[in-house]
Every structure is written in C-alpha cells, then in structure tokens.
Amino acid sequence: MRLLNFLRSKSFWGSVILAVVLVFVAAFVALKWLKTTTNHDLHIQVPNLDKLDTDQALQKLEEKKLRMVVLDTLDYDKSLPPLTIIEQDPAAGMDVKENRKIYVKINAAGFGKVSMPDLEQLTFRQALATIRSLGLKEGTKSYRTFIGKDVVLGVSQNGKSLKQGDKVLKDSRIDFVLGDGKATLSDEERDVAPAID
User: Fold this and answer.
1) pTM recorded for the entire structure
2) Other Cβ atoms closer than 10 A to 168
3) Which segments constitute the PASTA domain (predicted)?
4) Contact at 8 Å (CB) between 97 and 42?
C-alpha cells in the first residue's frame, strides 16, 4: 500500500520528470561536444597520388593535413615510373577527416630476381608455363639430337648456362635447348635382342 501511495505522490513524478529532463540535456550537450571535437562537418577531399613519387605525395598530403603510410612495394611495372605510387586507400576524391592516414603502395625501383627451377627433362610446354608463372619470358629455341621431341635439355641466358637455383631478373628471357625427337635407341638401349636371320 505504501508503494502505491509513493507512486501516486507528487514527489515521485517530480523526480521522474527531472530525471527525463536531465537525460535530454546531457544527451544534447554530449552531441554538441562530439560535433565540435570531431569536426563533424569538416571534410577534406583526398588528392590523387597516382604516379607521384613519395616526396611529392607527402607534400601534397601535408598541405591538406593528411598523413601517408607506405604499406608495400609492389612488383616492378615497367609501364609506370619507378618508386611512384600506384595504389592508394582511401581513393582519390573521397571525403575524410583531418589527420587521416592515407595508405599507399609503391612501384618497385626495378625487377626483382627469381630462382630458376629445375626444367630439364620437362616438356617445353611445361617449362614455358613454369617460367611464365615466375615472370620470365620465352627466349630463343635451339634443337639437339635427342629421342624426346621438345624435351628440355638445357636453359641459358645471354649465352650462360643456367641450373636450378640460379638467380635471374624477372621479365628477362630464357633460351631453351630442346630435343628434336630424331634420335633412336639401339637394340641394347631398348633391351631387345637383335633379330636372327
């Protein structure tokens, strides 16, 4: 009974109304404070950093009060200038806040080196697929007498014979020595007894 009387009293309802008003005032003040401290309405447009070197990009970003973070150096793309920006995040034209980090990826200064795999005794088609997957190109082909046609007998570059593990620059050409398929096996190699007349 006392509880019901208290819930009907003016002091209870006055406290409820005062609490609701205080919550609304606190929320209004908090939102206004957040709007001013986070620069809610202030946006900076991200500049286009494509093909700029890091010094130029850094200067451009500092003018707009943005920061640059280099994420990675990507494989060399010869269609683009070396050591220039080729990717950025956020993209150019996006609206961001002041002091935002702009993440960039840079074109390498030149081609990196790869290790030569063991290509001997593979077919030319298998060997070609393997070197292309490493970023190498097909050079010249020469043939030597061998039983297997288009079987890789050796690889070279600029006249120097290559073996497994040798380092070569990506995008360079690899020359092949292939079997011509014209050799035949002797009776002994075929392990067949000669015919008796």
Assistant:
1) 0.55
2) 22
3) 36-108, 110-180
4) yes
